[in-house]
Amino acid sequence: MKRPLLLLTPDEFNLRLDKVRDAMQRAGADAMLVSGNATIYYLTGRVYAGYIYIPAGDSAPTFFVQRPVDLSGDNVTYIRKPEHIPESLGYVSPENIALETDTTPYSKITRLQALFPSSTVINGSAIMRGVRAIKTPREIELIELSGVKQERVYRRIPHLYQAGMTDLELQVEIERASRLEGCLGQFRISGDSMELYMGNILVGENADTPTPYDFAMGGEGLDPSLPVGCNGSIIKEGNSIMVDINGNYTGYMTDMTRTFSLGQLSDTAIKAHRCSIEICRTLAAEGKPGTEACLLYRHAEEIARGHGLYEYFMGHRQKAGFVGHGLGIEINELPVIAPRSHDILTEGNVVALEPKFVIPGTGAVGIENTYIVTETGMKCLTCAPEDIVSLI
């Protein structure tokens, strides 16, 4: 029995396709051939092994499928290998063809380039990053639903803790609650510069352990093959417990961090946590369309310095280079809220703000929320309580 390849409604598909074609025209692309899972999912509503050929103008795209073998629909063509694509297209060789050069292995890029020997290859990854940074109303609905489900899990966390637990044991219980709530478990990240499994639980001093990744928080991890996150530490009185767990419930994810404690934390930690909340609220109010992302970062840094907390801001021994990031299908989309970012906020951007602090002797504190950029500022989509919650 055949299944439809295209799972988007016709209106939603055409809206996304028009956005891609507008961006192709601005970039000077006469056609685009995409193969990345995230891009295929964006344009069809499902992941399959294969390609989508998108010509400029009004001609319909062609969906080239290798696997699975039971998909059907208009302009669906089955191929065994990419070398079958040119024949199906009538050996068309556009002047400029966009390929996902940032996220596709070099060997595959050279193979695809050989399909269009007279074409000049341009960067399709940049085209798609810009397109996907501005969400459609349907994408926002899916992100909002993920936020509701993630919030539901976070409200259960105080009931999951038991005395004597390690950070790993608590993380497993949170992951279990997340999966039962419908979390897909998939933490899709663009590129190969970051790796993570389901998220981070950071307890006490482990939060100050540097990692290879550009994360505000570190963590030794359980093994050098994945050197980030929990390390088996027993949760002790006076520790902070920072929870930054997977929010992918719909194929579109939210990102939320909350801080818990075992008993009372230090005055510095409490002050820093309040500062994090202040930064989020300030940047959310300022984050209107047309705002330069770098200015938001600088204001966050100024607030941290004004409270005498810059030493701990976005890490202590090792600092992250950003205070926020776009997200959706992937966790690291545009815009990036960083000091040298050239991004400008646009209505429809979805942004996670995560002004975090690491306090020696206590651990990590602060919050992270996911927001949608609107005409009047950023609307919060992750609404679990923001104050530090004691587990005892």
- Strand fraction equals 15-25%
Quote the average pLDDT: 97
Helix content range = 25-40%
**Helix-strand string:** EHEHEEEEHEHEHHHEEEHHEEEEEEEE
User: Structural class of the helices, strands and pairings?
Assistant: alpha/beta
Total strand count, please?
19
Q: Please give the count of helices.
A: 9
Give the overall shape.
elongated
For the termini, the CA-CA separation is 55 Å
Poorly predicted ranges: none
Output the radius of gyration.
22 Å
How do the strands line up in the largest sheet?
A: 6-4-3-2-7-8
Sheet with the most strands?
6 strands, mixed
Describe what is shown at a glance:
By secondary structure, the protein is an alpha/beta fold. Helices cover 31% and strands 20% of the residues.
How would you portray this structure in words?
- The structure is a single chain.
- The protein has a 6-stranded mixed β-sheet, with helices on both faces. A 5-stranded antiparallel β-sheet has the order 13-12-14-17-18. A 4-stranded mixed β-sheet has the order 9-10-11-19, with helices on one face.
- The protein has helices spanning 10-27, 37-44, 85-88, 106-113, 124-133, 137-160, 167-181, 267-286, 293-306; strands spanning 3-4, 31-34, 49-55, 62-67, 71-72, 76-78, 96-99, 120-123, 199-203, 240-245, 257-261, 324-326, 333-337, 350-353, 356-359, 363-366, 369-374, 377-380, 389-390.
- The chain is of the alpha/beta class.
